[in-house]
Amino acid sequence: MKSFFKFTFASILGVIVGGILLLFLGFMIIAGIASSADKSVTVKNKSILEIKLNKSLADRGVDNPFSELDIPGAGSSSIGLNTILESIEKAKTDEKIKGIYLNVSDISANFGGIASIEEIRNKLKEFKETGKFIVSYNNFGYSQKAYYLTSVSDSIYLNPEAMMLLLGMGGERTFYKKFLKNVGVEAQVIRVGKYKSATEQFFRDNMSDESREQTMAYVGDIWNQILKGISEERDIPVEKLNEIIDAFAVKKAADAKKYNLIDGVIYQDEMNAILRKLSDIKEDKKLRLISISDYSKSPDEDATFSKNKIAVVYASGAIGNEQSETAIGPELANTIRKARRDSTVKAIVLRINSPGGSALVSDIIWREVELASQEKPVIASMGNVAASGGYYIACSADTIVADKNTITGSIGIYGLFFSGEELIKNKIGFTTDSYGTNKHAAFGGGYPLMVVPVSSRKFTTTEKAILQEIINDGYDTFLTRVADGRNKSKEEIHEVAQGRVWSAVDAKENGLVDVLGGLETAIEIAKEKAGLTDDYRIVSLPKQKDPIQELLNDLTGEAKTRFLKFELGDNYRYYNQAHSLMDLGGIQTRLPYEIELN
């Protein structure tokens, strides 16, 4: 028996020691991967900067060294718009870079919005002015978004068997009124502004006239900008482009070549031969392609260190109670406050990519933007969308800059609540009985389904009137914030508000936007307002978390989310959109849908 216990104890001890050693080895491997990601990259002579669009695009990328590990907890990686723009700028004067290869064969379905594409496209046009080449190739067919980007290329090539579809800009919206009725749930909506269509999907079967009017206005503006851009680069009149599109004349590579939308129909090996010739590489030698990720790690010989800073504060995602790389929370107010108090920060650029969200959190952030603008220049830079709460946090900036394809406005507020009286009492069979010490102690009823935000009854007339008063006050506050920030009267702002969504072009016309341009335009304005020469550097805020700590968090606290992202890939966004429908409840300043051009 003694030998048995001795053997058992030794086995357990061996397992524990072995486990500790394996854990230690794992940390060593993780640390090695993380440290290798920070190593400087050497650029060879006669190199070509290869831009691939095979990851999601964020205003600020997450350089995750573990993203290539084939495990759910390894996290994901994105391409940063800031990294792409900085790399193209650096390549303009880098003698080792011969040109740019837009390899968009594997374009990701969630590669950014049209405003971000516009910023990259404008930067590529600057690059062309240096005399260096830009060529594009696609093995699997161009989406409209990819084609618009690559239309700036000197030459565009396509695989002979690939498809290319130009269809125009449009889509469908889903309405849930009948579904809710079938399950015994009714949406109770309190809103201000005839254009605030954020809740229509819950109480209508189709788009209202106002919703259709505003949608067609900004969709038309954006599509006209796209057609104009293609027309200028390919020397095809806009009228001819519309004629081609309406006739569905382009379906495959040969059609695109016929109508001068591309320059050649070739295979990958032929594309490689063209690249060798352009970069003066012999046929038997390997092409020297360098990715954006690697090139961003190469030393910039023109870079100088300066104590003067322009802080670019990134505000990306819906506005709610938690801060992350893809969501805006109250912590962003702390970030702006720290930038305001930092004497080395001479100006702030608030980069916004948000459909809005919580009215309360929007106001908390607005307050810090307002305080910062009293002490130093604050420039708002709008990305793909900066609407509703996204506009709320921008309105106190000294200057508002938006890309011409930005969606903005939606100055309005709504309250959305779900009553499940029919579902709870008649279909499920629950009964409720209220009690309370005061007249309104049981305001709005109870929530017997617990995990689903559906109340046991409809609002009373008094309760609905109280909520309408709260919503009206919230709208009045929103108008006041915008009017003060834009130096206009509340009446003037109300005329262009009422929940209406605008394209940036129209928003500039009605005074909601000051300048049409991208992030670099905003930085340039911040530099001028701060009285800086070229003696400054850019700092990005909030500070990103350590990748090792993030990996540990992913493997522990966010296992479910990471597993779903791992399994669903790009389709995770559809799951997330469906899941977030429940987050539309309560008092909100946000857009009700995502706007995307494929």
From TrEMBL:
Location of the Peptidase S49 domain: 129-281, 372-532
Subcellular localization, as worded in the UniProt entry: Membrane
CDD domains linked to this entry: S49_SppA_67K_type, S49_Sppa_N_C
Membrane-crossing residue ranges in chain numbering: 12-34
InterPro entries, per the entry: ClpP/crotonase-like_dom_sf, Pept_S49_pIV, Pept_S49_SppA, Peptidase_S49, S49_SppA_67K_type_N, S49_SppA_C
SUPFAM superfamilies referenced in this protein's UniProt entry, alphabetically: ClpP/crotonase
Keywords: Hydrolase, Membrane, Protease, Serine protease, Transmembrane, Transmembrane helix
Primary location group: membrane
Domain of life: Bacteria
Pfam families in the cross-refs: Peptidase_S49
Membership in a protein family: Belongs to the peptidase S49 family.
PANTHER family assigned to the protein according to its UniProt record, in alphabetical order: PEPTIDASE S49 DOMAIN-CONTAINING PROTEIN, PROTEASE 4
NCBIfam families: SppA_67K, SppA_dom
Stated name of the protein: Signal peptide peptidase SppA
Gene name of the encoded protein: sppA
